[in-house]
Amino acid sequence: MARTVLIGAPIDSGQRRPGCLMGPAAYRVAGIAAAISDLGHLVEDWGDVELPDLRPVHCANPAVHSLAETVGWTEVLMDRVDDALGEGALPITLGGDHSLALGTVAGAAAFAAREGRPLFLLWLDAHSDFHTPLTSASGNLHGTPVAYVAGRRGFDAFPPFPDPIPADHICLYGIRSVDPAEHAALLDHDIAINDMRVLDEHGIVAPLRAFLDRVRENGGMLHVSLDVDFLDPSIAPAVGTTVPGGTTFREAHLVMELLHESGLVTSLDLVELNPFLDDRGMTARLMVDLVASLMGRKVFDRPTRAK
User: Fold this and answer.
1) What pLDDT shows up at residue 179?
2) Which helix (H) or strand (E) segment is 115 a member of?
3) Contacts 24+ apart (CB under 8 A), 277-283
4) Cis status, amide bond into 96, omega within 30 of 0
5) For residue 276, how far is the Cα from the chain centroid?
6) Is 175 helix (H, G, I), strand (E, B) or coil?
7) How far apart are CA 215 and CA 64, in angstroms?
8) Which of 74, 89, 262, 305 has the fewest CB atoms below 10 angstroms from its CB?
9) Residue 227 bears catalytic tag
10) Catalytic residue chosen out of the listed positions 69, 75, 82, 129
11) Spatial separation of the C-alpha atoms in residues 272 and 240, rounded to whole Å
């Protein structure tokens, strides 16, 4: 039995399409607490984080917007995730756009550093999110977290990342949309890029198991960041950054089942759910179902749904 902590992150500041701030409420309505507790785990809901008093910050890139708010969310989420891990819990952060990972991964890294354990990052996303505030043409900071955790320059406005994650401890999985500037930067780093071409050629299982084996061999902690657009938009429409060709229902569940079997996951993000774009809650329910697979629901345990 695991102790899990739900942390709501009603964040819209990392991009320009409103709606992600409703994500935490949608997950709760879709029954995320019951889905976890029904599997025998203890669930605590710590409620939604609140934006702290903002401090003056600056970025040389005029395209960047909502910088002070995003820095504020980063600081509060860093503390909240660190606190949950310090209490021996598995924090599940309910987003909110992907800029929340600036704080959640930093919190996990701070805890891991104190424990003397390496932190690994599994990024389940259509995008590499490897821009910095200085290279982003859109100014949308939800496209920067992986660069932040990898120690790229340009994050002077943010808290110093506690312990940058080595490139070979980061796995980008399901990637299928990378800007030229991001691609050029990724070539300078030894980050495992398992794009959809790799998964089509080698299958879903082999690349993930290879990464999980590395985590296990190093006695590492594993932070998983799951973006709605990791899924194909035909089954998960509630996201503002749809990219065709994502994972199918069964592929996504297989990933979650493998993560459960590994026993390595120590923290989790659920990001970019925009309920305003959903179809009668189908995306929220699917994401909750995936969390249940991660927490131990077996394929033959799935309830039959009425047509």
Assistant:
1) 86
2) helix 101-115
3) 277/19, 277/237, 277/238, 277/239, 277/240, 278/26, 278/237, 278/238, 279/237, 279/238, 281/26, 281/29, 281/30, 282/235, 282/236, 282/237, 282/238, 283/228, 283/231, 283/235, 283/236, 283/237, 283/238, 283/239
4) yes
5) 20
6) strand
7) 35
8) 305
9) yes
10) 129
11) 8
Tally of domains within the chain: 1
Judge whether 253 counts as a catalytic residue: no
Which tokens is 27 given?
């997950």
303 within domain boundaries? no
125 is catalytic: yes
Q: Is residue 28 included in any domain, yes or no?
A: yes
CATH of the domain at 69: 3.40.800.10
Answer for the pair 19, 228: CB distance below 8 angstroms, yes or no. no
The one catalytic residue among 82, 272, 278, 289: 272
The pLDDT of residue 306: 59
Instruction: Give the type of residue at 67.
Output: L
pLDDT at 307: 54
Active-site hit among 12, 97, 142, 169: 142
**Would residue 129 show up in a list of annotated catalytic residues for this protein?**
yes
- In the set 12, 127, 260, 269, the catalytic residue is 127
> Is-catalytic flag, 98?
yes
Identify the active-site residue in 69, 75, 82, 125.
125
- Note the pLDDT of residue 24: 98
- Amino acid identity for residue 120 in this structure: F
SS3 call for 69: helix
Residue 148: give the domain boundaries: 3-298
Amino acid 12: pLDDT:
96
pTM beyond cutoff 0.90: yes
Residue 190: the pLDDT is 81
Catalytic pick among 82, 97, 182, 229: 229
Give catalytic status of residue 229 as yes or no.
yes
Residue of 69, 98, 182, 223 with catalytic role: 98
Averaged in consecutive runs of 10 residues, what is the pLDDT profile of the chain (307 residues)?
Answer: 95 95 98 97 98 94 97 98 98 97 98 98 96 96 97 96 95 92 87 90 95 98 98 95 92 97 98 96 97 89 63
- Does any domain span residue 14? yes
